[in-house]
Amino acid sequence: MTRVTDELAPIPPAKLSIRGVSKSFRSARREVAALEAVDLEVDVGEIVCLVGPSGCGKSTLLALVAGLETPDTGQILVDGSPVTKPGRDRMVMFQDAALFPWRDAIGNILFGLELKPGLPRWARLEVAQYYLQLVGLSSFAHAAIHELSGGMRQRIALARALAPNPTVLLMDEPFASLDAMTRERLYGDLQEIWQKRRKTVLFVTHNVREACCLGDRVIVMSPHPGKMRESFAVRLPRPRDINSAEIAGFAREITAALRLHE
Amino acid sequence: MRRFVTFSLFVAIVLALWEAVGAAGAWPEILLPRPSRVLSYLGGAISDGSLLEATLVTGKRLFAGYALGFAFGLPLGLLTAHATLARDTIGLVALGLQTLPSVCWVPLALLWFGQTETAMLFVVIMGTIWSILLAAESGVRNLPPIYTRAARTMGSRRLHLVMHVVIPAAFPAVVAGLKQGWAFAWRSLMAAEIFVTILTGFGLGHLLHYGRELHAMDQVLGVIAVIVAMGLLTEQLVFAPLEHWLKRRWGLAN
Question: Which residue in A68, A145, A146 is closest to B149 by CB distance?
């Protein structure tokens, strides 16, 4: 029992530093600069949202922090140690959930736990069940992925990302393919879950209101090459309502900035 | 269920007509014996054990060859999917040889291995391996990259990634390859058994062959019925449940 408690104990979020990071991709004919000299400090437990049009390199930046790609120049540090490869301290939520159809819902959550050394089977199951409950899908443990709605899939994906107890959570447009109703419910749930499992979050979106609703800070990026242009601090108490006037005010300001840097 | 009743009725009527017209002497019995004659052959062959033995001999060859074809085909398919060099060499060979009817391997197998079990095994392996290889390759090639990316963020790599992500993700394609490989293996083994006498065991193909030599058409028809039954049984007991499971888990309509 003690081991499971250890496993579920909240761990302090990490400090994330991105220093002078550039990345370009070689296509058939030319070289595309996806990111140029990006600097960003994300404070312990801070939620930073990156907004910008497609091609501004926001998803590339996430892949770099995840360790799925390596930067051409610069460095990414998590609590002072450089990122060289993927690690369970930085978990990712993808746009289309990326759940494995050959596993059921709880099987997907267990995937990352199975790779954690020293965790016996019963402990893994208990941890997975805790996160299933956290996202409100306890009764869907053995559902096949194709039986779940889009919103449910993203909940399972969130549980899967939280289960290995990372210090950084990377979210790559996780709600982009959901309908507005589902999305708005998830904003509330997500804020509630963040209260319980505090993480340093880098959240990529092209939805400005979403960014204002979720982020402590919203960073505007521009494409060709991908660069960070402006940073907005959203100092509003949580939980926030996406339809509130304050959010609309911030969104207007940030949308204007986006147009300016287009 | 309704389909089953309709079909049974259809078969019963055809057999009854055949029996009646045959009994009336409409054609020489030696060319086309009546169903009752075929049944009595089957009864005799079952009670003296020869049919069961032949079925076992054939089944053993098929199973061994099929298992070996799978054991080589799957890893080779994974290899051709991942390494350009393997794809441009083994992959192209597979593509070519898959078009070759595997019974064409019989003359070669006889020269190399003589009239032995190894020759039979070789023919069955050649029938299976290429379909499974190509199916595994295309399954892996069409794998959504997001699966491997997601798995890597959770700490999966190398062998774990292959065993827990790449192979399961390619599974639907592999099942399709297994089914095709089975069909090829089954057909090529029958052809090989009819052509070649292997003294270590008489399979169903041999029974067919000797039925012809002895002008025992009741035997020929009886063995054909057994071969059809084996094919249907495999389909119903192995592939149908496998595909049903795939459909339930993946939500695939095939």
Answer: A68
Residue A174 sits at the chain B interface (C-beta within 8 Å) = no
Q: Residue B173 falls within a domain, yes or no?
A: yes
Q: Is A70 on the interface with B (CB under 8 A)?
A: no
10 Å CB burial of residue B47 (0-12, 13-18, 19+) is: exposed
Strand order in the sheet with A168-172: A90-93, A168-172, A200-205, A47-51, A217-222, A227-233
In-domain check, residue B21: no
**CATH label of the domain that carries residue B160:** 1.10.3720.10
Q: Is residue B251 predicted with pLDDT exceeding 80?
A: no
Q: What is the pLDDT of residue B254?
A: 41
| Range in A19-33, A133-147, B210-224 with the lowest mean pLDDT | A19-33
The pLDDT, as a whole number, for residue A23 is 95
Number of domains in chain B: 1
| Chain B residue whose CA is closest to A111 | B154
φ/ψ of B209, rounded to 5, equals -60, -45
The whole-number average pLDDT for the span A109-125 is 93
Mean pLDDT across A55-72: 94
- Any domain includes B23: no
Domain containing B160 equals 35-250
Nearest neighbour of B248 by CB, restricted to A68, A116, A144: A144
Q: Domains in chain A, ordered, with CATH? A: 2-260 (3.40.50.300)
